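BUG: 3D viewer hangs when loading the predicted structure for this chain

Environment: internal workstation, default settings.
Expected: structure renders.
Actual: progress bar stalls at 90%.

Input used:
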Amino acid sequence: METVTRFFQAGVGSFFLFGPRGTGKSTWIAQYMPEALTIDLLAPDLFRSYAARPERLLDVAAALPLGAIVVIDEVQKAPELLSVTHKLMEERRDLRFVLTGSSSRKLKRSGVDLLAGRAAMKTMHPFMASEIGEEFSLAKALAYGLVPVVVGAPAPMETLKAYVGLYVREEVQMEGLVRDIGSFSRFLEAASFSHAALLNLTEVARECEVNRKTVEGYISILEDLLLAFQIPVFSRRAKRHLITHQKFYLFDAGVFRCLRPAGPLDRPEEIEGAALEGLVAQHLRAWLAYRQEECQLFFWRTKSGVEVDFVLYGPDTFYAIEVKNSSRVHPAMLTGLKRFREDYPEARACLLYRGKERFERNGVLCLPCEEFFRNLRSDQAIT
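Structure tokens produced before the viewer hung:
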């Protein structure tokens, strides 16, 4: 697959660039910062050298010209380097540092200060549909996801399975994040049933035959490894009784499909519906991240069960979005959006569905999913 132009922009100054493995961090750096000095901590010899003596970075930096860029790839593998980087930022203000990582867990556990705010925090996400243009296929995205290393593979399902296995083996097992890899593997399967839904920790713990506290720890690991995220309920000026639980998503629709077991009792449309909602969620997260605006992603659900899948709220943004895996729009599908707009008439309401026609009904814009994905760009509004 040819190199894709990403919507991610670095801006100026030093920054952290976090994102799951395979989402294109290194490719982006090679494309836009080819002159940078790259220290790849996945290379065993470099890792051993810098882990044993982080001060080596001072010697390397002393030989760099003015305005040089230093990339430290997978910085979480040697958190001690951050103290040296901090020192260099104070002494060599001409240098620019780019610190990439696929996990924030070791950095959090090491008690490092993440450079005391001297480096911006940025994230890289799976492809957005509009980044790959004509190559985008909704059917393939729902089946295999949009992780770049999978999208560009000749055998995407085999690559996807290897990708998920790599994370469990290298990021979890080799880093010693869990004692019982079997229990964690069972947890991954059980958690996949909660994708695009409220996470019932007690039920997941029962399925995995572990206690609830262990499941809470596993959820924390997934979030630290950037493999999953949760979104909170929107409660500003709440006029109704709302639930307090958060909604759970795996970071990519393909990863969800790979982890989610399917059998004779599973309805294909139910699994595809969860995949579709997750695909929308990952696009909205990427859209928010690349716009770099003070805007957040929520959902809305009353205790009586009335729900809106996504709410985007910020100084200049207020959207309520419902996702339906249906080729037709039925009146009942608009109930959640209508209730939400009764409480928040300022919000723009949008229903995404699997049909072909764009139209408006009862103040709700009904938009084909295909059109939504293909037109969603970081430099444009959602609709």
